[in-house]
């Protein structure tokens, strides 16, 4: 949940960083344009919190942020199924390389502790507050998008692209078969029901279902 400030910008910008929705790009974009990042730390053990400030959800950040002083508040969201599969590929668990083993493990662990994996599995709807603008990263996060938000919200960006982090994870190494996909869909429909409702997503629109993200 970084807060961005710059000396020549009248008020802070609040960003609710939902894990696996393009948050690193957002943060890098603001920093490249001279903004300072506050209330941010990616390691919960350094702060004494159960989750890092970077990934605070609404229940926590609503207690510490005065939104009356904020210029603009926004969050990024993603189709829940694609977000789940991105988490699987980006953060594999030793000994749980097969998707069904990974999903069984994280399902069990999440039922015991919603904060596991630094809030990476928490429903996106739980990062949302009344009045926050949500941006679907499935179709945005381009130079044109950066230019549009800069103009619309008076951010005075001079740079509209950032260096992409190198992704060394090969999808071929974490390919899904039909049984895996069915399990993933069932999990998302159960755990992320509010996400589909709040953000207007449909399972059939996910890259994994449409064929854009299969082996």
Compute the average pLDDT.
89
CATH architecture type: 3-Layer(aba) Sandwich
Q: What would you call the structural class? A: alpha/beta
Strand order of the largest sheet: 3-1-2-4-5
Give the biggest beta sheet. Answer: 5 strands, mixed
Instruction: Name the overall outline.
Output: globular
Describe what this molecule looks like in 3D.
By secondary structure, the chain is an alpha/beta fold. The chain has a single domain, classed as Rossmann fold (3-Layer(aba) Sandwich). The chain is 39% helix and 9% strand. It has helices at 23-32, 44-47, 58-61, 80-90, 99-112, 116-119, 143-153, 178-191, 193-199, 207-210; strands spanning 3-5, 13-16, 36-38, 72-77, 133-136. Strands 3-1-2-4-5 form a five-stranded mixed sheet, covered by helices on one side. Helix 5 (99-112) packs parallel to helix 8 (178-191). The model has no long low-confidence stretch (mean pLDDT 89).
Key traits:
alpha/beta; Rossmann fold; five-stranded mixed sheet; 10 helices; 5 strands; 39% helix; sulfotransferase activity; Sulfotransferase family protein; Sulfotransferase; P-loop_NTPase
Kindly summarize this structure in a few lines.
The protein is of the alpha/beta class. The protein has helices spanning 23-32, 44-47, 58-61, 80-90, 99-112, 116-119, 143-153, 178-191, 193-199, 207-210, and strands at 3-5, 13-16, 36-38, 72-77, 133-136. The protein is 39% helix and 9% strand.
């Amino acid at each position: 949940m970084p807060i961005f400030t710059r000396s020549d910008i009248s008020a802070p910008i609040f960003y609710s960083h939902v894990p696996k929705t393009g948050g690193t790009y957002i943060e890098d974009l603001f920093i490249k344009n001279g903004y300072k990042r506050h209330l941010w730390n990616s390691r919960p053990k350094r702060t004494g919190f159960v989750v890092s400030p970077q990934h605070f959800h609404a229940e926590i950040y609503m207690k510490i942020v005065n939104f009356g002083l904020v210029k603009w508040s926004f969050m990024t969201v993603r189709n829940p199924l694609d977000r789940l599969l991105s988490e699987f590929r980006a953060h594999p668990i030793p000994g749980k390389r097969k998707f069904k083993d990974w999903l069984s493990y994280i399902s069990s662990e999440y039922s015991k502790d919603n904060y596991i994996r630094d809030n990476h599995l928490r429903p996106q709807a739980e990062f949302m507050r009344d009045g926050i603008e949500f941006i679907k990263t499935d179709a945005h996060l381009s130079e044109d998008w950066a230019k549009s938000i800069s103009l619309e919200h008076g951010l005075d960006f001079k740079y509209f692209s950032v260096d992409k982090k190198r992704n060394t994870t090969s999808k071929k190494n974490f390919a899904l078969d039909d049984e895996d996909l069915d399990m993933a869909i069932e999990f998302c429909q159960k755990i992320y029901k509010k996400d589909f409702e709040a953000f207007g997503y449909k399972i059939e629109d996910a890259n994994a279902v449409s064929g854009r993200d299969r082996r």
